[in-house]
Fold these 3 entries.
Entry 1:
Amino acid sequence: MTARYSGPRKGSTMDRFFYAFIAGLTLLAAPLAAQETRIGEDDFESPPATLADLDWLVGQWHGTGISGAPATESWLPPTGPTMVGTFVQQRADGGIQFTEHMYLMEEDGSLVLRLKHFDADLTGWEEKDDMLAFRLLGIEPCAAYFNALTLRCDGEGKIMVAVRMQSADESVRELVFRFKSLN
């Protein structure tokens, strides 16, 4: 089974744009020798976890994103049961290609990562009340495996983020981002 994004509603203009854009992104990502993401069985149960398990993620991270263009990910310390994060994918010319606004939340004794995408002009990809949600599959020291998304340490002062994408033609690819700490 492959995770699908719960993106724009079928038939809308945003729906066609979203899937065309994702298809383009997947063509830009090189295939990996080893798969970084995991997929849970239907109705999997998330393991116990808290935001304290991801304290290593707090900070600013910079690296190479899609097509080798710069990308930045930032995570704030928890505010109650939520950590807020942002992701910025730049274009090769230095402008913003798109951003993500992320919430890493404690929920039902475990963790879930929710996010929304935005174009450079702040136009949202998902419908107003829709978002992508990644439930926790597994947790290890310095690694969190969500359904179709992985966050893990990648050496001293480095992290790796991988997300599984399914394009409109049903092909599945992983986008992998490697970041160094700016702290």
Note: The beta strands are 59-64, 70-75, 82-90, 96-107, 110-119, 132-140, 143-146, 149-153, 158-166, 172-181.
Entry 2:
Amino acid sequence: MRLTKQVIGGLKAEEDDIVVWDDAVPGFGVRVKPSGVKTFILQYRNRHGRSKRLSLGRVGQLTLDQARREASKLKGGVSLGDDPVRERREARAGDTVRDLSDRYMDEHCTGRCKASTMAAHRWLLDKFILPRFGAHKVKEITATDIGRFHQGLRDTPYNANRCLGLLRAMFNKAEQWGEIPTHANPAEPVKPFQERKRQRFLTPEEFKRLFASLDEQEAMKVIGTHQAAAIRLLCLTGCRLNEILELEWRSVDLANRRLLLERHKTDKHGAKAIPLNSAAIKLLEALPQEDEDNPFVITGKNERSHLINLQKPWNRVRKHAKLDDVRIHDLRHSFASTAASAGVPLQILGGLLGHSSPQTTARYAHLWQDPLAKASETIGTIIEEVSR
């Protein structure tokens, strides 16, 4: 018979389920349970000739017309080789975003990424990504979902963009692992927020205040000798924070006036040599080695360990020096700005800082113009006097 709203409304099952098929769409029908629950179903044979039955939805949640249209659509796919029961089972059994994140960290990041990068990824996952998407299936995530998530973090654009980048990388791997189709990365269409690069350079007078504060705070034992040494080395070498905190004595080559770093941000290019100026050498020569078994220059509280957190002593020093807006990483910028202002060519400056591309060093180009302008002025004066 042809199913109608009235026919379905009058159907009842006494002891066992009953199924009434629709003449309009072969294989489409309604199943009635003794409990009174009525469900639209579709019966079909897959490409291997096996009979399959798919529940389309309960009567009341779907109208008859909606269910009949869905059945017709699915039957069209079946004729082309689709198997909606198998596809639904696979979708339900698919990995969640939490599963994907675990696999990404274990199979992709481990052995490739530094400990600091791994820690940053884990923080973004635990703080932002997994609370929002962790229980969702990888295949269910859409560009709209990620766009709304990214927009929801607009008050912290840096975190929003780091989350977006991590999601993009994770879903790229999901493509490679066959968890989602190729070119279906839902994070790809989402555009990051514009970030303004913060440039804070210490002036000569601020450097003077900083070093005076270090001397006083160390003398008063407000900060430790190795904590003060770490801050001074950051100023004198332009190294990144972890490069100083994880520095080992075997990497200190005083004879050749250099640090030879085997592990650093751009270590895919090989060991990085950091020239040591006389001030840095004097500091290292005077730094006490309290534990001969500890390989690290900047020692920590535990045996054979390095200092983990410089933030607390740094906060004390900068507050005392009235440099509240200066971050630790700004010491590296200040080293670079001092070099650029002194006329050090940008190519050499990039080498000092260990930049992997000239574009990174180019942020200091405007500072480099100062000595060029002074040189041009001197040359112009000489020529003007000669030509009189």
Note: DSSP finds 16 helices and seven strands in the chain.
Entry 3:
Amino acid sequence: MRVSLVLALAATLTAAVTAQQSTFKSTTALVEVDVTVLDKQGKFVPGLQADDLVLYEDGKLQKIQQFYMVAHDPSRLGAAQATVGLSRSEAEERARRFFVFFIDEGSLSAESLMRVKKGAENFIDRQMLPGDMAGVFVNGQMNKSRMTDDKIELLGAIRSATPAIDNRQALLAPFREFPRIPSENDALRVTEGARELLDELGRRACLDNAMQCEIAGGTNAVENLIQQKARLYVRSARVLTENSIENLKYVSANLARLIGRKTIVMMTEGMFSDESRPQLQQLAAQAARGGTTIYTIDGRGLVNTMSANPDVVYASRARSEAGDTGDDGPNILTSGTGGMMVRGIDDIGRAIGMVANDTSSYYVIGYAPENAVMDGKYRTIEVKSTASGLQIRARKGYLAVNLPPQEFIRKAGYR
């Protein structure tokens, strides 16, 4: 089924896009880096020129061969300025905004899913600009295997999202019941045979609740219960994480065909990432090579570490993240691609708007690496400003692999 979905999306893209002759080097030869430059107040700095920024790959200074600034205007398709190495019209076409709303149902509780659906609907209905293209990855597949500017279709896809029974919070819930497991990391250590930790958790549980300990059958029986809970969680959480990684690979691989910056908005509650760091780093590096930036939005909204009981009714009542250490995965994805994590906001529509704003003003640097051989290895990127006092955010590196043929979407859009 996965292969058929990939082929279906590839066929749709092929039918929907048209290759255009360009006066500049193909993006398959250039490495492109989206760069956000902020002042001390956190505001975007416009008007920079190519010689205001320097770029290093694996510590070596690279020659900038392509440069332009993107600053979107609601009345226009996209405004590109200060171009080097390509025409103004080509830069503006490349400035088109692409969004994929990636709803990670396996990580979202029912109440978080309600929140992200409402937020995504509000963004699509009120904040999508003329020329924007979007797609929805929902219920394990790309809706209709395509991207579109049809708001009715997009809204229908968002509303089709259904909660997973064995979602992340459902799996974590037993951690907060007797006998407690403080965190996912502790559960993993228990499954890996950390005997001292198991003894300590069993001893602490029986000290905190002697009656429950006696009912369970004593310390040894309590330790057995802790082992069972830990193994069940780790086994199930691995499956959820593997599914999320494979789905993100699928989306980013297909987005790599399109010229311009692509944005994946992953709505999630985190993931069990202790064992998956290499795969997540590889995914981020591959997405970065294809010009895709990943942003993550915490579907829980405002959370704290005190209460074990989430509250779906009152926005002012913070939801819990007790026992949850799943932010590492999203952080790897966002930092590796130059995106950001958005947390602690109940209004998901506003959170997505923050992402859209961040991806609407930036610079694009294109360069031909001094090491021109695409050898499949990871290469670091560092962008600096020649002016002092500026904050620079850009992807940290990329995977040196060849890209598929790059294509423009028709200006009329595709459906």
Note: Residues 169-234 form one domain.
